[in-house]
Amino acid sequence: MKEILEILEKDARTTPEEIARMLNMTPKGVANTIKKLEKDGVILKYKAIINKEIDRDDNSEVRALIEVRITPQKNLGFESVAERIYKFPEVASCYLMSGTYDLLVVVEGKNINTVANFVAEKLSPMEHVRGTVTHFILKKYKEDGDILKSFEKNKRQAITL
Fold it and tell me: Which CATH number do you get for residue 8?
């Protein structure tokens, strides 16, 4: 089962027949295993990784990583605060972290101002939020293990001494 997950994680378009050949299984056995993994919630969905550096246009969204320090609630810990945060539509991901902050929140918006407004008007004023630090993603080089190659030529002028 773990091998099937690893193959699908690398390329979700791999067919049960291809997986069966790789693992010396029957295609029907692979298909049944995949259906069970989907039913049990182990496989949540399949998606494409888009190189937005190449597909970028004037309407491209900005993405920010926001460090959030929170005060855990008695008998609830971080869960209820995290749940209130990750339910906002602007939030793409939310992680409980170890270290100097508690949550790492990935936020998407039309532009820097929409992300800044989200932090100022929705996130920072929340009860139990003690502080935030926002980092805007300027360029991605690698995402989910895949190198995002940019086909843009280097426009910098070489400096020679």
Answer: 1.10.10
> Going by C-beta distance under 8 Å and a sequence separation of 6 or more, which residues neighbour residue 79?
none
DSSP for 39-62 reads HTTSS----PPP-TTTS--TTPPE
Query: In whole angstroms, how far apart are CA 6 and each of 32, 43, 48, 93, 151?
Result: 16, 11, 16, 22, 29
* Token digits of residue 72: 């855990």
Domain count for the chain, please give it: 2
Question: What is the mean pLDDT of the segment spanning 97-126?
Answer: 96
For residue 88, the model assigns a pLDDT of 98
Residue type, 35: K
Q: Give the per-residue pLDDT at 77.
A: 87
pTM of the model: 0.73
